[in-house]
Specification:
single chain, alpha+beta, Glutathione S-transferase Yfyf (Class Pi), Chain A, domain 2, 2 domains, 4-stranded mixed beta sheet, Thioredoxin-like_sf, EC 2.5.1.18, glutathione transferase activity
């Protein structure tokens, strides 16, 4: 039975998982969930699809799993992946996992929060975020991006050193997100910019495919509507 991936391309981890599965040639049925329409908020969705009412998640036959990092590990084990994207070697895998664990309270938290406060919540509520509060969110994000550039990318061209991995995919998808709110994460960060360009190239054409929606929003300089 074919794996089903439920996702929305406006979701950062959705994009990361989509790219990861495509690159590793893992067959799956693409099931898009229109978050903007609120279909995930119904009791039916919670009962029949995902108890957490979020994306991404998978159905693999009768088995259901949420949380993008857990899905990466499950799929990698089931399909016996052993490559740079998610290696079996203990220390190499641990280095990938180190970033995947770190990102939750850092790259993902700060980039997503800025995106939500600057663009998404004002669109949904019709009320802009207080400028002083928004500046704090931007400062937190700036600090996080500085850490990515000066620590995670200090010892090689990729997050874990000399080889690209799924850690780079997740990092890039999160760092792309503020572009929809009119913020360029690479401005004044040459190391980060060069790394992001490498990731885009290495993950082509799936990277561009997954970022089609976000690129359209970004082209409008933070003034796009849902």
């Amino acid at each position: 039975m074919t794996l089903k991936l439920y996702f929305d391309f406006l979701s950062q981890p959705s994009r990361a998982l989509y790219i990861f599965l495509k690159i590793n040639k893992i067959p799956f049925e693409a099931c898009q969930v229109a978050l903007r329409k609120g279909v995930h908020l119904t009791e039916e969705f919670q009962k029949d699809f995902n108890r957490f009412q979020r994306v991404p998640f998978i159905h693999d036959g009768q088995f259901r799993l949420a949380e993008s990092v857990a899905i990466v590990r499950y799929v990698s084990t089931k399909h016996s992946l052993d490559n740079n994207w998610y290696p079996k070697n203990l220390t190499e895998q641990a280095q990938v996992d180190e970033y995947l664990e770190w990102q939750h309270n850092n790259t993902r938290a700060f980039c997503a929060m800025y995106f939500q406060k600057k663009w998404l919540i004002p669109i949904l509520t019709g009320k802009p975020t207080d400028p002083d509060q928004l500046q704090k969110y931007e400062d937190n994000m700036d600090s996080c991006l500085h850490t990515v550039e000066t620590i995670w990318l200090a010892n090689g061209p990729y997050i874990t050193g000399n080889r690209i991995s799924v850690a780079d995919i997740f990092a890039a998808c999160e760092i792309e997100q503020p572009r929809a709110a009119g913020y360029d994460p690479t401005e004044g960060r040459p190391v980060l910019k060069a790394w992001l360009e490498r990731v885009r190239k290495e993950c082509s054409p799936y990277y561009e495919e997954a970022h089609t929606v976000l690129n359209k929003l970004a082209a409008q300089g933070g003034k796009a509507k849902l």
